[in-house]
Specification:
The structure is a single chain. This protein is α/β, with parallel strands linked by helices. About 40% of the residues lie in helices and about 20% in strands. The chain folds into two domains: about 150 residues, Rossmann fold (3-Layer(aba) Sandwich); about 180 residues, Glycogen Phosphorylase B (Rossmann fold, 3-Layer(aba) Sandwich). It has a six-stranded parallel beta sheet with strand order 3-2-1-4-5-6, with helices on both faces. Strand 8, helix 8 and strand 9 form a beta-alpha-beta unit. Helix 6 packs across helix 9. The longest helix is centred in the first third of the chain and has 17 residues. The protein starts with a strand and ends with a helix.
């Protein structure tokens, strides 16, 4: 009977991207195994129909959250939660790997029917109490990609050459091409900007992005495409208003795989520290990543076509979501970013 393995990595986009090399290593080691992945709906587009996976189990976090906020919906919440748990337990697994290491993922690992339940000792939020096999506690300064590969290595997978298998299909490439064609970019060189970030301390200035836009247009004839979620449209508008040259606003208009296809087409990408930044690195795009309150050696872009800009102030990394004087980001100059783009751009 073929081996059955369940990967538990719920979110976020960056975390899922960081786990892809472990998936590739496990598939290479166990070509006939039944590989399943338990993931939040927000990042599921990266995994659905993935050729290395036999099954994707979607954890409906958003739906559960909406139902739990309304007391009248609790009977429905209980019913749907029971249905989800029954589905999770409908198959038995030889190994369940908790890549997340949080209470939620630990509970889901425990609920699944796994003979071996693998993860790191001393996990966050007491998540490791649900494991049957515990690797030694990881060094928090170890890059996330290498950390997850150690879990795959425990199952005898070869992790020497990390790969990022993105399931980008012909439809995704065509969708990206249509978006650019409709916006008037056609076959022109494009610069992708990803200015948004969930933490306010990770954001750079719209005027800084606008100066990069104008300089890249004037020096290298690169048309700027701004990408992001629906909530980034105001930020995109601020950049467009500050720039002298037209920009293309695709915020809220790209699925993750379409976005990955755009990145493969880009001459360069400039991004804050967000999930789409990791997707750009995985897609092999020439990438300039702006870091302030976080540590690139822990969760920076993983690859050779990247330039990380970090001022290295004494207070950084602080890992704070709010700061009254975020100099670590605000003091990054447009000239630094433009110079970095010049070093890594495709053309």
């Amino acid at each position: 009977m073929d081996m059955r393995i369940l990967l538990v990595k719920l979110s976020s986009i960056g975390d899922v991207v960081h786990t892809l090399p472990a998936l590739a290593a496990l598939r290479k080691r166990y070509p006939d195994a039944h590989l399943s992945w338990l993931v939040d709906e927000a990042a599921s587009d990266l995994l659905c129909s993935h050729p290395m996976l036999n099954e994707v189990i979607i954890y409906p976090r958003r739906g559960f959250g909406e139902l739990s906020s309304n007391l009248r919906q609790w009977p429905r919440l209980i019913k749907e939660a029971r249905n989800f748990i029954n589905h999770l337990r409908s198959k038995s697994y030889d190994v369940v790997i908790d890549f997340q290491g949080l209470l939620k993922s630990g509970v889901l690992t425990w609920l699944s029917r796994g003979t071996r339940k693998l993860g790191f000792a001393e996990g966050r939020e007491w998540s490791s109490i649900f494991l049957t096999e515990k690797l030694p506690r990881y060094d928090p300064d170890e890059h996330a990609v290498l950390r997850y590969l150690r879990l795959a290595s425990h199952l005898d997978a070869d992790v020497e050459k990390p790969e990022f298998p993105l399931a980008i299909g012909k439809a995704d490439t065509e969708r990206a091409g249509r978006l650019l064609e409709e916006a008037g970019a056609g076959d022109r060189r494009i610069l992708c900007l990803n200015p948004g970030a969930a933490w306010e301390t990770k954001r750079w200035t719209p005027k800084g992005f606008a100066k990069v836009t104008d300089s890249c247009f004037e020096r290298w004839d690169m048309v700027t495409v701004i990408i992001g979620g629906p909530g980034d449209n105001i930020l995109a508008s601020d950049i467009a208003m500050s720039a002298r040259h037209p920009v293309i606003d695709l915020t809220g208009r790209t699925r993750l795989r379409t976005l990955a296809a755009l990145y493969q087409r880009a001459g360069a990408v400039v991004s804050t520290d967000t999930g789409p930044m990791h997707l750009a690195a995985a897609a092999g795009a020439p990438l300039v990543a702006l870091f302030g309150p976080t540590a690139p050696w822990r969760t920076g872009p993983f690859g050779r076509k990247q330039q990380v800009i970090r001022l290295g102030l004494s207070c950084s990394p602080c890992f704070k979501r709010h700061c009254h004087d975020p100099k670590c980001m605000m003091d990054i100059s447009p000239e630094q970013v433009i110079e970095a783009v010049g070093k890594i751009r495709r053309w």
